Amino acid sequence: MRWNFTIGRRLWFLVGAAVVPTLMLAYCQISHCWEAYQEAKQGPAIVAVATYLSDLTHELQKERGLSAGYIAGGGTAFVDQLKKQRQLTDGVFQRLDSGLDEGVTAGLVEADDLQEIRDWQAKITAARTKVDALHEAGPILKDYTNFIQDNLNRTIACARTTHDGHLIKTLLATEMLALAKEYAGLERARVSQALAAKQADTALRRKIADLQRAQEEHLLHFESLVSPPVLETLQANRKAPHAVRAAEIADSVTSAKDDDRFEIDPTEWWQVQTSRLGDYRKIQLDLGQEIENQANEAAQTQLFRLTMAMIVCGFAILLVGGIGYHTARTIAKRTAALVRAIRKIATGEASLHDRLPVMEGELGEIADSFNQVLTRLDSAGDLCSSSSSSLASAGEELSRNAESVKEDITRSQNQSKEITRDVASMFEGIRGASGSISMVSESLQSASKSIQRLVDDMANATMQANQASKTTQSASEIVSNNSKQIGRLETAATEIGDVVGLIRDIADQTHLLSLNATIEASRAGEAGRGFAVVATEVKQLAQQTSSAIEGIENRIEAIQSATRATTKSTTHVVELFQQILSATDLLAEVTQEQGRSAMTLSEEVRNVVASSNSARGSMDTTVEQTQTINQRLKAIDELLQTAVVGMGQAYVASHDLGELAHTMKEQMDTMLCRHD
C-alpha cells in the first residue's frame, strides 16, 4: 500500500513533528514541577508530624523527671505537678494519634509506627501504675527513656522524608536540640535522685557526668546547623541566672565524694533545671515555626514554578503551533492554486495559451518552469495538427489501393478453388481403389493372425494335455500306494483282534479263579476274610478287563470295516485314473495333428497377404502423390484467403488511420482552443 502524501499533508506532518516534541518537553517540565510541588506540599504535613512527636518527647521528659522525684520523695513530693503533667502528656498523645492517622493517609507515616506508638502509650500507663506504687525507679525511668529515644529516632526519620535541603538541615538541628534536651532531662532526673537521697555514689556521679558530656556534644552539633541569630539566643540562655544556678548544683553533685551529704533543696534544682529545659523548648518552638514557614514558602515557590511552567509551555505550544499553522496554510493555499490551474489545463477547461500566475519562492520557480513547458507544448501542438492532416490524406489513398488489391486476390482465390475440386475428385477415385485393396489385405492379415493364434492355442493345449497325463500318472501311483498301506492296516487290525481274543481268554480264567477264591474264603470263615477281599478285587479287575476288551473289539471291527470300504474305493479310483490317462494321451495326439494343419494354412495366408501388399504399395504411391498435389492446392487457397483477410484488415486499418488522424487533429485543435 502506497501512502499518498500530498504537499499539504506533508506540511501538516511537519507542523505535527514540531509541535509533538514541544508537547513532550512541556509535559516533562510540568511533570517535574508537579512532582516538586507535591514534595513541597508534603513539607507542612511532615513538619506537623515532627512537631507532634517533638511535643510528646518534651512532655514525656517532664513526666519522667517528676516521676523520679515522686518516687525519691516517697510519694510526697511533686504530687500535684505529676498529676498535671500526666494530663498534658495524655493530651499530646491524643493529638499525635489524630495527626498520625492523617500521616498514614498521606503516606508519610507507616501504619506499623502508629500501632507502635499506641502500644507505647499502654506501656506508659503501666509505668505510671508502678510509679504510683513506688516501685524501684531504675526500671521505670528506663521504660520512659526507651520510649523517648524511640520517639526521637522516629522524629529524625520523619524529617528525612522531605527533599528540601534547607528544610532537612533545620529539622536535624531541631532534633539535635531535642536530644540535648533529652540528656538534660535525664540529668535532671539523676540529680533529683541524688538530692532526694542527700548523697551520690560514684556510679551515679559518673552517669550524671556522662549525661552532661552527651548534652554538650549535641549542643555543638546544633550550633553547627543553626543560623547566627539562633546561636546568639542559645548563648544568652546559657548565661541566664537559672542556667548558671543549675550548672552550679550539677557541678556540686558531680564533684562531691561518696560520704558527702547534700543540703540543697531538690525543689530548687527542679525549678532551675526545668527553666533551663524551658529555654531549650522555646528555641525548639521557634525553630518549629521557622520550619513550618520554610515548608509553606517552599510549597508556594514550587506552586509558582508549576504555574509559570504551565504558562510558558502553553505559550510555546501556541507559538510553535501558530507559526506552523500559518506557514502550512500559506504554502497549502499557493500549492492548491497551482494545482487548480494545472488541472484546468489538463482537463481542457483552459487553453495551452493560458499561463500560471507568477509567485515568489520555490512555487514561483515551479510555475515559471511549467509555463515554459506549456509554450513548448503549444509549438508541438501546431506540428502535430499539420502532421495529422497529412496522415489523414495518406490513409485515404492507402484505403483505395487496398480495396483494389483485395478484388484481384479474390478472383485468384476462386480459380484456385475450381482446381482444388478437380484434384479432389481424382483423389477420391484413386483412394477408393486403394481402399478396396487395403480392405482385402487387412482381412487376410487378420485371418493370418487368427490362424497364428489358433496354432499357438493348439500348442498350449498339447502342452496342457501332456501335463495332465503326467499328473494323472502321478495321482494313480499315489492312490496305489495308499491302497497298499490300507491293506497293511487291515492286516494289523486282524492281528490286534487275535491279541484281544487272547486277553479275553485270560480275563475269563481270572474271573473263574476269583469265583473259586471267593468260595474257598467263605469256607475258611474269619481266617479267610482277607483272602476274600483280595478275591473280590481280582473279580472286579477281571470284569473291568472284560469291559475294556469289548470296547477294543468294537473299535477294531470299525477299523476293519473302514479299511475294507477304503480298499474298494481306492481300487475304483485307480481304474478311473487309467481311463483318464488314456483319454489325455489321445487328446495330445489330436491337438498335435490340428497344430500342424493350422501352421500349413498360416503359411498359405501369408503368401496371399504378401501379394496383396505389393499391389496396395503401388496404389498407395499414387494416392500419396495425388494427396500431395491436393495439399499444395489447399495451401495456395489458404494463402490466398489469408491475403484476402490481410487486405481487408489493411483496408480497415487504413480507414481507421484516416479517422484517427482526423480525431487527433480535432483534439489538438480543442487542446489549443482552436475552432474552425
Would you mind describing this structure in some detail?
- The chain is an all-alpha fold.
- The chain has two domains: 49-296, no CATH class; 364-671, Helix Hairpins (Orthogonal Bundle).
- Helix content is 90%, strand content 0%.
- The protein has helices at residues 7-72, 79-106, 111-132, 137-159, 165-197, 202-225, 228-238, 241-255, 266-347, 361-524, 529-671.
- The longest helix is centred in the middle third of the chain and has 164 residues, at 361-524.
- The radius of gyration is 72 Å and the shape is flat.
- 20% of the residues are buried.
Tally of structural domains: 2
Q: And the CATH topology of the largest domain?
A: Helix Hairpins
> Which band does the percent of strand residues land in?
under 5%
Residue stretches low in confidence (pLDDT < 50, at least 5 long) are none
> What is the strand tally?
0
The name of the CATH architecture of the largest domain is: Orthogonal Bundle
Main sheet specs = none
Separation of the first and last Cα atoms: 47 Å
H-E order? HHHHHHHHHHH
Q: What count of helical segments does DSSP give?
A: 11
Task: State the secondary-structure class.
Answer: mainly alpha
Radius of gyration: 72 Å
Roughly what percent helix? over 70%
The first-level CATH class name of the largest domain: Mainly Alpha
Mean pLDDT: 70
What spatial form do the alpha-carbon principal axes imply? flat
Q: CATH superfamily name of the largest domain?
A: Methyl-accepting chemotaxis protein
Topology:
Blueprint: H1 7-72, H2 79-106, H3 111-132, H4 137-159, H5 165-197, H6 202-225, H7 228-238, H8 241-255, H9 266-347, H10 361-524, H11 529-671
Helix pairs in contact: 1-2, 1-4, 1-5, 1-9, 2-3, 3-4, 4-5, 5-6, 5-9, 6-8, 7-9, 8-9, 10-11
